[in-house]
Design a protein that fits this description.
Elements (H helix, E strand, L loop, with lengths): L8 H5 L6 H11 L5 H8 L2 H11 L3 H21 L4 H4 L7 H19 L3 H14 L6 H15 L8 H16 L3 H15 L12 H22 L3 H17 L3 H17 L3 H17 L3 H17 L3 H17 L3 H18 L2 H18 L2 H18 L5 H10 L4 H22 L2
Helix pairs in contact: 4-5, 4-7, 5-7, 7-8, 8-9, 9-10, 10-11, 10-12, 11-12, 12-13, 12-14, 13-14, 14-15, 15-16, 16-17, 16-18, 17-18, 18-19, 18-20, 19-20, 19-21, 21-22
Length: 432
């Protein structure tokens, strides 16, 4: 929803001036024509003018709420201490534009509350939340989302639409704070209230589809934490719920991502057949979406599952299929990963010539990316492993690598020394 700005006509009539210097200049020019009340207003701080105006109009609740928010900001600042981001910001009472918005919408909300027009109360509280959506103001936004949630419980004439929206916003608050279980409670309530409804938000998004996406995301985040803690069965249970949400939202990309996560979870739990099934689902969805990066991830993970079952030939076949695709669509990063994987398989099998061939291809692909860190990763642990482990060393591999290196004297010297050492070792091993 677009942020609504509010100017207060009553404050405009009082001619409240923002900033001490502006007040002093104004008084110097116009002091003779002012009443005592007006002169006092100009001399007071802008915050005090706001508070006085609220009290004079009978908005005692708004006054108390504003005063409490200013105190909360000061407490947050003190707790964070010097050097923190909030310490460097101006106090809320020193930001007239924000005080204007608070004065406007708080008093409107209080007036609506006095007449028990809770929809109007909710609307003004929500506008305040939207006013404070910047990162440094999130604590204010969260406060007003919570007020919206409380008010929404009192609205009985819209079938629960505002209550659903309030649950969605509270879910977002808890998700941002890392309280995932609390977020799940609100997102599930949001979902339950929107089942079978045609409600849409201000951008035209269907509420129920939005609820499915929120639940999918939070379930996936929860499952990630569970997998990190090796809670595999619980992760599988949560991911199964996430898959249901993805299917209900009719979002193939979400379905694919969840199938992949389920494949990983089953693999970690030792359920290899189920892992392969879910990974192949992800593979097929990636093909339909022409998501070649996802396709590479699927091929490589299936290959890992096959290797764990001792099916080395099938694993190699999957990786070689992906290499063909990666070359066609110029996915250099994915090609690097596949080549390193194949190189490691052949290296561990003792086929050092084949290993060196794939490591060389990996290095070529990394060179095309101009990724020096990645090239170093390939040439040092991978190629050295293949070349030093075998009794037959491919000296040409090192010579080619030398030519690929960036034209830097220091790097060239290092690789020249490495090449000479490998050549001596090769000559020595040939005599065995």
């Amino acid at each position: 929803m677009e942020e609504m700005r509010c100017t207060s006509p009553s404050l405009a009539r009082m001619h409240l001036i923002k900033g001490k210097n502006a007040i002093d200049r104004y008084l110097a020019v116009h002091i003779k024509g002012l009443s005592k009340q007006e002169a006092a207003a100009y001399r007071n701080s802008y915050k005090k003018n706001i508070c006085l105006d609220m009290l004079q109009q009978g908005y005692h609740k708004s006054f108390a709420e504003l005063f409490t928010l200013i105190e909360q900001w000061n407490a947050l600042r003190e707790a964070s201490g010097p050097g923190s981001a909030i310490w460097l910001e101006k106090s809320l009472e020193e930001q007239p534009d924000k005080l204007d918005q608070l004065h406007c919408f708080l008093t409107r909300a209080e007036a609506a509350q006095q007449s028990e027009n809770y929809e109007e109360v909710y609307s003004n509280q929500l506008n305040l939340a939207y006013c404070f959506n910047k990162l440094e103001d999130r604590w204010l936004r969260n406060y007003f989302y919570e007020q919206c949630y409380k008010t929404a419980q009192l609205i009985k004439i819209d079938g629960g639409k505002k209550e659903a929206e309030a649950h969605s916003n509270m879910g977002l608050v808890y998700e941002e704070q890392g309280h995932f279980l609390k977020a799940v409670e609100h997102y599930e309530a949001f979902y339950n209230l929107t089942v079978g409804r045609t409600w849409k938000d201000d951008t035209g998004r269907n509420f129920n589809s939005l609820a499915c996406e929120h639940l999918w995301r939070i379930y996936t985040l929860l499952a990630d934490k569970m997998l990190a803690n090796k809670e595999h069965q619980e992760a599988i249970r949560i991911l199964t719920k996430a898959l249901k949400m993805a299917e209900e939202a009719e979002n193939m990309k979400m379905e694919g991502e969840t199938a992949f996560c389920l494949g990983i979870a089953y693999f970690s739990a030792g359920e290899l057949q189920k892992a392969t099934l879910k990974l192949n689902t992800y593979l097929n969805i990636s093909k339909q979406l022409e998501d070649y990066v996802g396709l590479g991830r699927a091929y490589q993970t299936v290959a890992r599952v096959l290797l764990s079952q001792g099916k080395k030939g099938e694993a190699i076949r999957y990786l070689e299929m992906f290499m063909d695709i990666a070359k066609k669509v110029q996915l250099s990063q994915s090609l690097v990963d596949a080549c390193i994987f194949l190189g490691n398989i052949y290296n561990e099998s003792g086929n050092y010539n084949k290993a060196c061939e794939y490591f060389s291809q990996a290095f070529e692909a990394a060179n095309a990316l101009s990724d020096l860190a990645l090239m170093n990763e390939i040439k040092i642990p991978s190629i050295s492993s293949a070349c030093w482990t075998g009794k037959k060393i491919e000296v040409t591999c090192s010579m080619t690598l030398l030519l690929w290196m960036p034209n830097k004297k220091k790097t060239l010297k290092i690789w020249l020394a490495t090449f000479q050492l490998l050549k001596k070792l090769s000559d020595l091993l040939k005599s065995f």
